[in-house]
C-alpha cells in the first residue's frame, strides 16, 4: 500500500530538511515549488523528493495539484514547516499496513512559537485533517472556498479518525518571522473580508472590529483558556494574534475605501 507525501514550497531551505527527514520512510515524496530563490529545490532533490516547479495559483489549487501528481493510495499532506514525531511515524506505518477501514485521519498539531510548545489558549491540540485516501478527499474548491486566499480547507465526507501522536509545527522561530506572517496573512484575510462585503463602514463597526474584538479575543484566550501558562512566549503570541485581527479589519477598511 503506497504512501505519498505531498508538500508545496517557496523558500523553505530552513524548514524542509526536518520535514523531509521525518517522512523518508514514505514510498513517494512530491514537492511542488513555486519559484524558490534559495536552496529549497536542491535540498528536496537531495533528500529524495520528486520536484515539480509550478507558478503559484493559490493554496488550495497548488495543494490539489501536488496531490494529483502522487501515485500512492494514501496521501499525507504536509506544510514545509511541519515534521512527524518518531511516535507518529511509527503509528502511521503500523496502521496503514493493516489497511484501516477509515478513509481519513486528523493529526494533532503541536505549534512551536519562539521554540516553545504552546499548549494552551486554544493552540493545542491543533488538529488538522492531513492523512487520507487519495480517492476520498482534496482541498475544497467550491463556490465558498474557490480562490480563497488563506485558510484552505480539506473537503471530506465521512467519519475521520484521530491519531495519538503529534505533528510538530515549527512555525515561528523568531518574532520577525511572525510579524512577516501577520502582515502577509492579515492582507490576505482583508481581501477575503472585502470579497464577502464584511467592511467596517460605520464608526461603531470600525471600533468594534479593530479594537473591541481583538481585546476580547486576547482576554478570552490568554486568561480563560489559560494562555498565560505558556510564559512570555504565550503572552507575546496572544498579543500579536489579537493585533493580527485588528490589522485584518483595518486593511479591509483601507482596501474598501480605495474602491
From TrEMBL:
<dbReference type="InterPro" id="IPR029044">
    <property type="entry name" value="Nucleotide-diphossugar_trans"/>
</dbReference>
<feature type="transmembrane region" description="Helical">
    <location>
        <begin position="206"/>
        <end position="224"/>
    </location>
</feature>
<protein>
    <submittedName>
        <fullName>Glycosyltransferase involved in cell wall biosynthesis</fullName>
    </submittedName>
</protein>
<dbReference type="GO" id="GO:0016740">
    <property type="term" value="F:transferase activity"/>
</dbReference>
<dbReference type="InterPro" id="IPR001173">
    <property type="entry name" value="Glyco_trans_2-like"/>
</dbReference>
<dbReference type="Pfam" id="PF00535">
    <property type="entry name" value="Glycos_transf_2"/>
</dbReference>
<keyword id="KW-1133">Transmembrane helix</keyword>
<keyword id="KW-0472">Membrane</keyword>
<comment type="similarity">
    <text>Belongs to the glycosyltransferase 2 family. WaaE/KdtX subfamily.</text>
</comment>
<keyword id="KW-0808">Transferase</keyword>
<keyword id="KW-0812">Transmembrane</keyword>
<feature type="domain" description="Glycosyltransferase 2-like">
    <location>
        <begin position="4"/>
        <end position="120"/>
    </location>
</feature>
Amino acid at each position: 500500500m503506497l504512501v505519498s507525501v505531498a508538500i508545496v514550497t517557496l523558500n523553505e531551505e530552513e524548514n524542509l530538511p526536518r520535514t523531509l527527514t521525518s517522512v523518508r520512510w514514505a514510498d513517494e515524496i512530491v514537492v511542488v515549488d513555486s519559484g524558490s530563490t534559495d536552496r529549497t529545490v536542491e535540498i528536496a532533490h537531495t533528500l529524495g523528493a520528486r520536484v515539480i516547479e509550478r507558478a503559484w495559483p493559490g493554496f488550495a489549487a497548488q495543494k490539489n495539484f501536488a496531490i494529483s501528481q502522487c501515485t500512492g493510495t494514501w496521501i499525507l499532506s504536509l506544510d514545509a514547516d511541519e515534521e512527524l514525531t518518531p511516535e507518529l511515524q511509527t503509528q502511521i506505518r503500523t496502521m496503514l499496513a493493516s489497511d484501516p477501514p477509515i478513509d481519513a485521519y486528523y493529526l494533532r498539531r503541536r505549534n512551536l512559537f519562539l521554540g516553545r510548545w504552546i499548549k494552551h489558549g486554544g493552540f493545542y491540540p491543533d488538529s488538522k485533517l492531513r492523512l487520507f485516501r487519495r480517492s476520498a478527499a482534496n482541498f475544497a474548491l467550491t463556490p465558498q472556498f474557490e480562490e480563497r486566499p488563506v485558510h484552505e480547507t480539506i473537503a471530506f465526507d465521512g467519519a475521520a479518525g484521530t491519531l495519538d501522536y503529534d505533528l510538530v509545527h515549527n512555525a515561528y522561530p523568531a518574532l520577525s518571522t511572525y510579524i512577516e506572517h501577520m502582515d502577509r496573512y492579515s492582507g490576505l484575510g482583508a481581501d477575503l473580508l472585502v470579497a464577502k462585503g464584511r467592511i467596517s463602514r460605520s464608526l461603531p463597526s470600525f471600533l468594534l472590529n479593530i479594537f473591541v474584538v481583538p481585546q476580547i479575543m486576547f482576554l478570552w484566550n490568554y486568561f480563560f483558556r489559560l494562555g498565560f501558562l505558556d510564559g512570555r512566549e504565550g503572552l507575546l503570541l496572544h498579543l500579536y494574534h489579537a493585533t493580527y485581527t485588528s490589522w485584518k479589519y483595518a486593511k479591509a477598511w483601507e482596501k474598501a475605501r480605495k474602491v
